[in-house]
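This part of the workshop introduces the protein records we will be handling. The question running through the whole workshop is how a given chain folds. To make this concrete, we reproduce a full record directly below:
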Amino acid sequence: MEVFQGHFQQWGAVVFFAVLYGAALFFVPFYRKMDRKPATAYLAFVLAFAIEMHGIPMSMYLISWAIGKQLPEGILWGHTLVHTIGHTGMYLSIVLSLIAILIIANGWYNIYHQYWSLESGKGKVVKDGVYRYIRHPQYTGLLLLSLGMILNWATLPMLVMFPLVVTLYYRLARKEETDMIREFGEEYLMYMGRTKRFVPFVF
């Protein structure tokens, strides 16, 4: 543990990363109470990442206590598989984060100008930008950010929470699609036939 001591107790870094990743939620609307459950799970995931990476490595302490020996970095705590792929996970995390930011920003720009901001409260089916390929770019971006955090610094709580985050956003996406079908009917059904839910050309 002495080798990695300098990585922890950096509470300024904890706040920085929590705010950095949490800020993505500002680009996602919360029109219904249901929307807040996935957002809360994502924020808890971000806090687990920030605190265990730069604050206190609770996963390492608890698991080491349970098994009676100290875990090496990369196994249920620390840089993911650092002994196998080095810091490749960190670099992949950076790439995924940049892609996620672009997707979220493009999705927010198009949906804001063509749906949310209309004074009448009625918009249209948005098909521009990233919406030409996927129907929920903000959620795709949040899931990419979450995956990137795991590839960078996996801990047991994050591995447990990630499937929950994915499930909640999947359910929210389906609920929103039902609402859109109710609002736009055949036009949205045709749009669904040409696009994917989260990943272009997949699922």
Summary: The CA atoms of residues 7 and 17 lie 14 Å apart. The radius of gyration is 19 Å. The helical segments are 11-22, 36-54, 58-67, 82-85, 88-116, 137-152, 156-184, 186-194.
